[in-house]
Amino acid sequence: MSADASVGDAPPAGRLLAPILALLAALMAVLALAGVSATVAVQRADEHTTHLREAEIEHLRIGRALATAESALTRWVDQGDRSGLRDFRDARVYLLERRVDLARELDGDRSAALEAEDEAVDAWLDGYAAAAEDPTDDATTPSRARGAALLDTADEAYDVAADRLTVAVDSAATRATWTFRVAVGALVALGALAVLAAQRGRSRLVQVLVTPLARLEAATQHSGRRQPGVRAPVDGPAEVRAIARAINDLLGAQERARAAERRLQGDQRALDAARHDFASNVSHELRTPLTTIHGQLEVVADEFEGRMDPRHERMLAAAQRNVERLTTLIDDLLLSADGSQRATALLDTDLGSLLAASVADVALAAGARGVRIEVAPLRGSVVLRADPPALQRAITDLLSNAVKFSRDGGLVEVQVVAGAHEVQVMVTDHGIGVPSAEQPLLGTRFFRASNAVRLEIAGTGLGLRRARTAAVRHGGDLVVRSVEDEGTTVTVRLSTGAR
């Protein structure tokens, strides 16, 4: 038989566990029913015994009442003591009341002995005591001998009934005791059967579910330790087998993914090496002509020192600064290819000087399109701890973008707001702006707004990202507010004591 067929023929866990669980449920139901029945039986036996004991007490009270009535009647008959007559009548009332209480306790279950006792007592009360209450009528007064005989008969009947009640109480107490013992024994036996069934169910559960699941757990742990070729055993009920197959599929996928990861890591290392070689070659190819240009510019500056008009001096200084900027950019490119960064040197920096240099760097591009750059006058000197090359490059990028996205003959405004702990540099243009739907993407690498692409405005999409990175490195941030066809304001917040 194939593995798939064996898996398909495996019964589900519910079917394997159903018989023992059904037996356990039946035993629990029987145990509960037996417990209720035993409780009811014991309670009824106790109640019956209690009623019989109460009946026995009432019967003792009847006996005392009968003795009191006979003694009181004798005082009245022999001595004419009217207190005896009164006591007799009270005792007779009390006796009859106790009869009612006795009947209530027995709830109609009166024995023949009690019936005989009632007849004998009634015979004494009606046949002798009633007539003895009025001894003046000699014709109706019964003889003392007859009264004594009737009283003896009543006493004997009382004793017989008392013995029968005592026997009944003892028998009821014995039955209650045995009922309790039998109930406890039955509950213990059923409880033992339930415990055996539970143990059997536990063993079955371990066999059907726990053991296969433990093997699955072991397989996953081995997989976590990256042991190749580990597979979960496909056994147990249908559900566990389905899980095992899924785990095996996952383990296979993990091994394939690890193999692909190893290939990708090798490709990444090769790519990193190629990128480093490319950056090194490009840096070398660019640094050589830049070094030559820088040297030639220094020669020009030395030879024509004092003989150039101010305009040409500014142009020469701007050329020298941009050569130095390109040299720094090439160094940063090479460091980035190596996965490192240029060490940041924080110096006390005059923001006004940096701003003036950045304006001078973009002045030619702005003048070519008739774009004016207006810098609001600074209120005093603004000095902050900064990396001068990085900060100037960020400001130059912002000014370059503002000029680039302005319309011909437009205006770029620059304002500096200095506070006790923070400096804000705001660059505002009145150009094409950025569509609102695209503004969340501003600052991401290589992103360019769709209207800039449509108008074929040149750019790399890196300037704003470089400016934001520089702001963060100086303990600040960068915020952009833009309205399409109206313009853009970029605000750079810088800490005055960035570390």
What does this structure look like?
The chain is α+β, with helices and mostly antiparallel strands. It has 2 domains: about 5-215; about 345-495, Heat Shock Protein 90 (2-Layer Sandwich), CATH 3.30.565.10. It is built from 11 helices and 7 strands. The longest helix is centred in the middle third of the chain and has 81 residues, at about 145-225. Residues about 1-10 have low confidence and may be disordered.
If you average the pLDDT, what whole number results? 79
Query: pLDDT under 50 segments (min length 5)?
Result: 1-8
Number of domains: 2
Shape estimate: elongated
Strand content: 5-15%
Report the biggest beta sheet as strand number plus sense, adding barrel if it closes.
5 strands, mixed
Give the H and E element order: HHHHHHHEHEEHEEHHEE
Q: Percent range for helical residues?
A: 55-70%
The helix/strand class is alpha+beta
- Strand line-up in the sheet with most strands: 2-4-5-7-6
Task: Give the tally of β-strands.
Answer: 7
Q: With helices defined by DSSP (H or I, 4 residues minimum), what is the helix count?
A: 11
Assembly level: single chain
User: Termini distance?
Assistant: 74 Å
The radius of gyration computed from the alpha-carbon positions, rounded to a whole number of angstroms, is: 58 Å
